[in-house]
Specification:
This protein is an alpha/beta fold. The chain has 8 helices and 6 strands; from the N terminus they run αβαααααββαβαββ. The strands form 2 sheets. Strands 3-4-6-5 form a 4-stranded mixed sheet. A two-stranded parallel ribbon has the order 1-2. Strand 3, helix 7 and strand 4 form a beta-alpha-beta unit. Helix 2 packs across helix 5, helix 3 packs across helix 5 and helix 4 packs across helix 5. It is globular, with a radius of gyration of 19 Å. The protein binds S-adenosylmethionine (SAM). The site of S-adenosylmethionine has 11 residues, from loops.
Length: 234
């Protein structure tokens, strides 16, 4: 969403935030040290194998990899792991198995350089979305891409060690209502769930059903294109 908006409208100010420190460090490294990152990613590309993957995953989880090497490992996992998902266990350890992909592209130099160019000037922070409220001003565009709302028991909510629960759905809803009252223009992605639709339509939000490509699902039949919601107040 950021890359689309940046190219189309070139906003003067953008803030990107998430509670996942490794994800945020990856965005910061792409913004500030793209060449150094590419160099490290080439190392991971050359070494890529099942044994190497598990060795690095163990070191990563034990915090024995730091700095730009850690960022490169994080990006490497998302390319070499099964289905490209980021999932942690209850201790916060990344636990996705190796993906066994042949000729997998671990990185793309041109894409990283282009992303770096677009990220120049972006304010990138480790932050809970609730802390963003104080920054919301009239007509600010706020895009929220939360963990999927628990749709069924197997839905993917494992981005953080604290799973996304029904209580989190309520907290997010309360945040959105407050951000709207401060004049924010909201876009919220979510699963196509009746309860979510009812929750937001009762408060006058627009419910748009869109098709999205999805492969984060334990049931292979659930991959491909699925319906998702884009909930907006404008
Ligand atoms: C569907 S993913 C979105 C990923 C992200 N848009 C990206 O660039 O890859 C959901 C994200 O919500 C984040 N998250 C979970 N709880 C959060 C909270 N309270 N505040 C901010 N981010 C949160 C997770 O860490 C996860 O990265």
């Amino acid at each position: 969403m950021f890359f689309y908006i940046k190219q189309k409208y070139d906003p003067k100010y953008s803030m990107l935030s998430d509670v996942n420190g490794d994800l945020i460090e990856a965005f910061i490294a792409v913004r500030d040290k793209p060449r150094e990152l590419i160099e490290k990613l080439e190392y991971f590309n050359e070494k890529n194998s099942e044994g190497f993957y598990y060795k690095i995953r163990e070191k990563f989880n034990q915090n024995r990899i730091t700095g730009i090497m850690r960022v490169a490992a994080f990006i490497y996992f998302t390319k070499a792991c099964f289905n490209g998902v980021y999932r942690v266990n209850k201790k916060g350890e990344f636990n996705v198995p190796y993906g066994y992909y042949k000729n997998r592209e671990i990185y793309n130099k041109e894409e990283i350089m282009f992303a770096s160019q677009l990220l120049q000037g972006a304010d990138i922070r480790v932050k809970d979305y609730n802390e963003i409220l104080q920054h919301v001003k009239k007509n600010n565009l706020i895009y929220l891409d939360p963990c999927y709302d628990p749709l069924k028991r197997t839905s993917f909510v494992h981005y953080t060690k604290d799973r996304f629960s029904i209580q989190d759905r309520t907290k997010l809803y309360e945040f959105i209502i407050k951000a709207r009252s401060k004049g924010g223009m909201i876009i919220l992605s979510n699963n196509d769930i009746v309860d979510v639709k009812n929750l937001y339509s009762a408060k006058g939000f627009n419910i748009n059903v869109v098709e999205a490509a999805r492969c984060v699902n334990v049931d292979p039949c659930g991959r491909g294109r699925i319906k998702e919601l884009l909930i907006t107040n404008y």
